[in-house]
TrEMBL record:
Name of the protein: Pseudaminic acid biosynthesis-associated protein PseG
Pfam families assigned to the protein according to its UniProt record, in alphabetical order: Glyco_tran_28_C (PF04101)
GO molecular function: hexosyltransferase activity
NCBIfam families for this protein: PseG
Residues noted as binding substrate in the record, renumbered to the chain: 166, 268
Residue ranges of every copy of the Glycosyl transferase family 28 C-terminal domain listed in the record: 188-298
Signal sequence interval, chain numbering: none
List of catalytic residues: 18
UniProt xrefs under InterPro entries: Glyco_trans_28_C, PseG
């Protein structure tokens, strides 16, 4: 049986998206009886990994990557990290290594490659030609990024067929659209560095159009402004705050409309058929939000710092007050992702590594 290691980080600054999608993959391997361990740097991500029952080996780190995760830390920094990873690969007899980080270079991959049977990279942005055995991009943009193979026999698993959506979003019932909107969901990622949840909640509360509509706020484990939200809840009975959510699909399914940061949450909202207004909070989300919007799956507010209060309220009203539009979105959204991406990846890796 093969042994798998996954290199991914989660923290207040870079968010939890990389760790969450890698946990989805790790569970797929675990369900197939394959051992998985994680290599990770920051406390928030490590705690989540261990919570889900996986071993997490902590790598050393000097400074935390900034929130978009694009700070590459220099050749010296990556060289040191590669050496640490190699020690673990040898010590634990790892066959397959997955890397899910933007903090990579050609040299970094080439250094790691001789120590595993298969080196795999989970990507979103096509920064350069990656010297890996398997390249994975399960985004709607995956097939359009014109990837160039570094090796002739490099396997590319691209597009929504390989989306790493979690098991709970598989085979959900067709949504029945309510004529009147009763609940609005706000989900702004694992850390909400721009305090969007608070801003958007206040705007909804200030407009009489949304009187008596319940606001479901999902607060990630890295929320620094959670106390402000709790104070808002104390003053408003229409607000519900969900912390440490174990079943995100339940909140999505009961909400009539969602306002969401870009990222993998958008695929989950599509699986639930929840009509969505998306907000871009990091550069790596822009292309996905734009394409989902262009193809008519969601609506977009654009960048978090680029829309006015009036624009937001107008778009939200337009969505809430138009039953036919919401029903159309729901039906279309639920056809986007089939939920078998993890299984397809696991099956491919097992086949080529055995």
């Amino acid at each position: 049986m093969i042994k798998v290691a996954i290199r991914a980080d989660g923290s207040k600054n870079i968010g939890m998206g990389h760790v969450m999608r890698c946990l989805s993959l790790a569970k797929g391997f675990r369900n197939s009886g394959i051992d998985v361990l994680f290599l990770s740097k920051y406390e928030q991500g490590i705690l989540k990994i261990r919570e889900e029952g996986f071993e997490a080996i902590e790598l050393s780190h000097d400074t935390e990557t900034h929130y978009e995760g694009f700070c590459c830390g220099g050749a010296k920094f990556l060289g040191k990290e590669a050496e640490e990873i190699i020690e673990v690969l040898k010590d634990k007899n790892i066959d397959v290594l997955f890397i899910d980080s933007y903090n990579v270079s050609e040299e970094f991959f080439l250094k790691l490659k001789p120590f595993v049977k298969k080196l795999c990279y989970i990507d979103d942005i096509n920064k350069f030609s990656y010297p890996v055995d398997v390249l994975i991009n399960g985004n709607i943009t995956g097939e359009y990024l014109n990837y160039e193979s570094y090796y002739k026999d490099e396997i590319m698993l691209l597009g929504l067929k390989y989306n790493l959506i979690r098991e709970e979003f598989k085979g959900l019932p067709d949504r029945k659209t309510n004529r009147a909107v009763k609940e609005i969901m706000i989900t702004t990622g694992g850390s909400d560095p721009f305090d969007l949840s608070y801003r958007l909640s206040q705007l909804i509360l200030s407009d009489s159009t949304f009187k008596n509509i319940k606001i479901n706020i999902v607060a990630g484990s890295g929320f620094e402004n959670i106390d402000r939200l709790r104070e808002l809840k104390r003053k408003n009975t229409d607000i519900e705050i969900y912390e440490n959510v174990s079943k995100m699909s339940e909140i999505m399914l009961k909400s009539d409309v969602a306002i969401s940061a870009g990222g993998s949450t958008l695929y989950e909202l599509c699986a639930c058929g929840t009509p969505t207004l998306a907000v871009i909070v990091a550069e790596n989300q822009r292309a996905v939000v734009d394409m989902l919007c262009t193809k008519g799956y969601i609506e977009s507010l654009g960048w978090y710092n680029n829309f006015s209060d009036e624009e937001f309220l107008l778009k939200l009203k337009n969505l809430c007050e138009n039953f036919e539009k919401r029903e159309h979105y729901s039906k279309k959204m639920q056809k986007l992702v089939d939920g078998n991406g993890v299984k397809r990846i696991v099956d491919t890796i097992v086949k080529i590594s055995s």
